[in-house]
From TrEMBL:
The keyword Transmembrane helix applies. Keywords: Membrane, Transmembrane, Transmembrane helix. Pfam families: DUF8094. Residues 222-243 are annotated as: Disordered. This is DUF8094 domain-containing protein. The lineage of its organism: Bacteria, Bacillati, Actinomycetota, Actinomycetes, Micrococcales. The chain crosses the membrane at residues 189-213, 259-280. The keyword Translocase does not apply.
């Protein structure tokens, strides 16, 4: 019976071990699922659609092969389509019928680009499309990669994200594209099969040894058994000749190793297999839940209502990259006085004020440069909710560890999909300024039309009303609409004007004026239905001689005026023009609150002799 049990244990152990080995070999599922596509044609851009990226669950490994440089970037599907515009491109999608990747060509002239806002002319996008063909460095991308001949990257992209593949925008895009997804090929019952087989094998061995011992005991001679007749003694067989040690080719140690290697390999394999978590079932409460990595871009809020709104123009990570690039570029341009470089990232009144400073410093290096634009940290990010262009983003940069750096507020604008964000307005925030509550960056804020009547003052009337207060003071009809407490700019302008009037000789006169600037007002909504509005204003001071034959000139300490005008004295007089950038909080119509100045920047932009 012991032999039967031992044989059964050996057979069951062998079956269990074979099944465990089969699960890890011939029955093992592949570790990756792959789909490939070869793009036909010679299009310059290939778009990997979101449906293709979601063909299998999990992170996507993208492999692109070509004959030259390779560029890969990902962004919102609408942004990718807008960047491609009307150019010919290939689309790699997923076939619902076959489950394979498909490749289709869209000829030039057909575009899925969202329409631009009415403020953007039709000519502007066409110029951008004609001049910018290389997608590298675009502010629309959430991230980008580059390589040569072969490029592989692993991403975890959610729905609504597409990938753009190109070479350099001139040569055709790489043709070979393969997508792979890691699959779960764990074998949770292989470990128990190995362990159970080993235990049964050991039990069978014990039963076998017990059976042999019992058999040997049963064959021993018994007492009181009569002896039979004695057998005759047989002749001895010749003894074999002794073998010398030198004639032995295999040592006993080698034989022992060969005999012992089989169980050693078996035991080692079982021990190593037991160390892998993929070979054992997970009976914990969380074992049935697969941890999903956080998607690379986070574009939507968890609130269901946010999904119905237009998406924010940028994400926080995008804006951090943008501001870092702008900060480095402006720092270099400020040192080298490079106006062309600066113009690639600055526009509007922010560009005008900085270019004027460059002109002044080129003539007189003793003039101080403007405050440097820091790139981080971003303490507030308010992108516009939009699917079209132009786009606007506001951010506040504040370094709490360095109080010498003023808190800066920046308004950026992107005119078209193929242009980058440019600094439109740049302010130093008032120390007492309290920025009203705004929506989180993952939601964004709608842009307010310049002629919106639902505010205390429409954005396009704000600069003119404030300019009138600077000129007339309390006599201005708009004086009661603006908060005067904490308005340091108003105090600064009044003090400077008074100081200039006092320093002027009796032979000259000075006149001050202020008016709304020609730049468009930029407004973003706040949570209380108010708005944060950026506007520009122009201040002028005109100095003329009073007596015939008298001359006037810039003050001795007016280095900027001398550098721009190039005059020391004149009988005609001269005029200085200042450009002001003003940031206001405007409450909703019917509110008892007043309009509050949040920040400002002022700079001399022109100085010239009167005709």
């Amino acid at each position: 019976m012991r032999f039967v049990l031992a044989i059964v244990a050996f057979v069951v152990a062998a079956v269990m071990i074979v099944l465990g080995i089969a699960q890890r070999t011939i029955l093992l599922e592949p570790a990756f699922t792959s789909l490939g596509s070869t793009v036909a044609g010679d299009t310059k851009y290939t778009v990997i659609d979101s449906s293709a990226l979601a063909a299998s669950p999990g992170s996507q490994t993208i492999n692109v092969r070509g004959d030259g440089p390779i560029f890969l970037a990902y962004g919102r599907s609408d942004d990718v389509a807008a960047w491609v515009g009307t150019d010919a491109f290939a689309t790699v999608g997923l076939s619902d019928e076959t489950g394979e990747l498909t490749s289709t060509i869209t000829e030039a002239g057909v575009s899925d680009e969202p329409p631009s806002d009415a403020t953007t002319t039709d000519a502007e996008p066409s110029v951008e499309t004609a001049t910018i063909v290389n997608p590298a460095g675009s502010d629309l991308w959430l991230d980008e990669y580059s390589g040569a001949r072969s490029l592989t990257t692993t991403l975890n992209l959610p729905a609504g994200i597409s990938v753009l593949v190109a070479s350099d925008g001139i040569e055709p895009a790489p043709a070979s594209i393969r997508l792979s997804w890691a699959s779960d090929n764990s074998t949770p019952w292989a470990g128990p099969l190995f362990a159970g087989g080993a235990l049964l094998l050991l039990a069978g061995l014990v039963l076998y040894l017990l059976a042999l011992l019992h058999l040997r005991r049963s064959r021993r001679p018994r007492r009181n058994i009569p002896r039979g007749p004695r057998m005759p003694r047989l002749p001895r067989a010749p003894r074999p000749k002794a073998i010398k040690a030198s004639q032995i080719t295999t040592s006993r140690r080698g034989i022992t190793r060969r005999v012992a290697i089989i169980p050693m390999v078996l035991v080692s394999g079982l021990a190593l297999s037991g160390c892998s978590a993929d070979l054992w079932p997970n009976f914990s409460t969380a074992g049935t839940v697969t941890a999903t990595p956080t998607p690379t871009p986070q574009l939507t809020d968890s609130v269901e209502a946010a999904a119905e709104l237009p998406p924010p123009a940028v994400t926080v990570s995008q804006l951090e990259t943008i501001m870092s690039e702008i900060s480095l570029l402006s720092a270099d341009a400020d040192v080298t006085l490079n106006a062309e470089t600066l113009a690639t990232r600055f526009t509007g009144p922010a560009l005008e004020q900085r270019l004027a400073n460059y002109k002044i410093r080129a003539v007189d290096p003793a003039v101080s440069p403007l405050v440097a634009l820091p790139g981080a940290p971003l303490t507030l990010t308010l992108p516009q909710q939009t699917n079209s262009w132009p786009r606007v983003v506001m951010t506040v940069i504040q370094d709490e560890n360095d109080p010498s750096i003023p808190t800066m507020a920046v308004m950026l604008k992107q005119e078209s999909p193929r242009s980058n964000y440019q600094v439109d307005y740049l302010f130093a925030l008032e120390q007492s300024a309290h920025v009203p509550k705004v929506a989180p960056a993952i939601v964004g804020a709608p842009a307010i039309a310049p002629d919106n009547k639902l505010l205390v003052l429409p954005p396009d009337q704000l600069a003119a009303a404030y300019a009138d207060i600077l000129v007339q003071g309390e006599a201005s009809p708009s004086y009661g609409l603006f908060e005067s407490d904490g308005d340091n700019f108003r105090i600064q302008v009044a003090d400077l004007n008074a100081a200039k009037s006092a320093a002027l000789p009796s032979t000259a006169s000075i006149a001050f004026a202020a008016a709304a600037g020609s730049d468009e007002a930029v407004a973003l909504a706040t949570n209380d239905s108010g708005s944060i509005v950026a506007v520009s204003m122009t201040e002028t001071e005109t100095v003329k001689p009073v007596d015939a034959g008298a001359t006037v000139g810039p003050a001795a300490d007016a280095l900027a005026t001398k550098a721009l005008s190039g005059i020391t004295t004149t009988a005609k007089g001269f005029q200085n023009t200042y450009r002001d950038q003003l940031l206001f909080y405007v409450p909703t119509a019917g509110s008892s609150e007043k309009i509050v100045l949040l920040g400002f920047a002022q700079g001399l932009i022109t100085s010239a002799e009167l005709p």
